[in-house]
Amino acid sequence: MAKVLEERVWEALRAVRFPGMSRDIVSFGFVKGVAVHDGVAKVAIEMTTRDPDAAEAVRAAALQAVGGVDGVTGAEIDLRVAAPPSREEAAQRAIARNPSLIPEVAAVVAVASGKGGVGKSTVAANLAVALARAGRRVGLLDVDIYGPSVPTMFGIAERPRVIDNRIQPYEKFGVRLMSLGFILDDDTPVIWRGPMVMRAIEQMLGDVDWGALDVLVLDLPPGTGDAQLTVTQKIPLAGAVIVTTPQDVALLDARKGLQMFRKVNVPVLGIVENMSTFVCPHCGTETHVFRHGGGARTARELGVALLGEIPLDPAIAEGGDAGRPITVEQPDGPHAAAFVRLAEAVTTALATTPTARPQIQIV
Ligand SMILES: Nc1ncnc2c1ncn2[C@@H]1O[C@H](COP(=O)(O)OP(=O)(O)OP(=O)(O)O)[C@@H](O)[C@H]1O
Ligand SMILES: [Mg+2]
């Protein structure tokens, strides 16, 4: 009978969510043990948070959930709250732990920018599709907590399946896909909840059944702040691709992005100039909407490669909004060709950048 009751208590705890997250405290691994004696349930919960209110909310919700279990006459919650490790400690631990997290992924490539809205997600998605079309085994992981894009850009609405405790990535257009958006709720506040999100990212790597991949493309959140820095330290990157637009301000931000990666010893594979030129769909004339060529200049000045130039075209935006990236929608068009060239440049850069160490060896 106690066993049956314990099962019921576990089940009830699976309905208790961590505040602000759509996931429950059992799947986060916070519940360390459940024991029921003479109808009294004792639950041990351990969690890492800096937020005492969140801890208390979990305690109250767990108490209520367990108290409501049929056959349980009393409930005690033994809650231990540990302070999260400092950023340096967390980074060090992550680095020590990482190689085993995704042992079958040969190279992780981050798509980043100093500034928001320059087309990182668009580039990441189409780069992934273009790499897949070239026969590479490709994954795309969206770690943009500010506004995940992969679900929209690939037209995925449902939550991922879990088989044998492994989260199954979606497979669409030849790319294995996963997004923090599938885990974070739409109403999750747009703030950087460091440790929780870090844990989620760790799970996106360790608990997702990526299988063997040649390249895992990461769609990073915009900016060069702490959030990005932590991601770059958490995940063993083979290299970074910096997206910029031709305006001078965007280029300044690209420089900041470069500096950030250099600081953490991640090789920058090169720059992509997005919204580079406008090709008229009617007459084919190329117009330089913004001052064209800034990407090439910045690349020269900073001593990195210009990996590609992507034209500005509403069709590229429409493809993304409709869940069909332009590389899928118009695979033989000029825009897809630009992304195919980018994919080739990234592949070459990975092979030739001496420090683009896939830190993880395929065994
Ligand atoms: N080459 C392009 N031509 C036309 N529209 C584009 C192009 N690249 C991106 N866009 C559009 O610009 C907007 C911003 O692009 P995207 O979401 O890819 O940028 P982002 O850098 O990922 O943004 P964020 O910083 O918010 O994550 C989107 O509406 C996208 O469809
Ligand atoms: Mg984005």
Summed up, the helix count is: 12
Give, in order, the helices and strands: HEEHEHEHEHEEEEHEHEHEEEHEHHH
The tally of strands reads 15
Q: Average pLDDT value?
A: 82
Which stretches of 5+ consecutive residues score pLDDT under 50?
A: 93-98, 357-363
User: What is the number of domains?
Assistant: 2
The CATH homologous superfamily of the largest domain is named P-loop containing nucleotide triphosphate hydrolases
Alpha carbon gap, first and last residue: 47 Å
Class by SSE composition = alpha/beta
Radius of gyration, whole Å: 23 Å
Percentage beta strand: 15-25%
Q: Main sheet: which strands, in order across? A: 8-9-5-10-4-11-12-15
Ligands, deduplicated: adenosine-5'-triphosphate, magnesium ion
CATH-derived topology of the largest domain: Rossmann fold
CATH structural architecture of the largest domain: 3-Layer(aba) Sandwich
What is the CATH class name of the largest domain? Alpha Beta
Query: Mind summarizing the main beta sheet?
Result: 8 strands, mixed
Helix % is: 25-40%
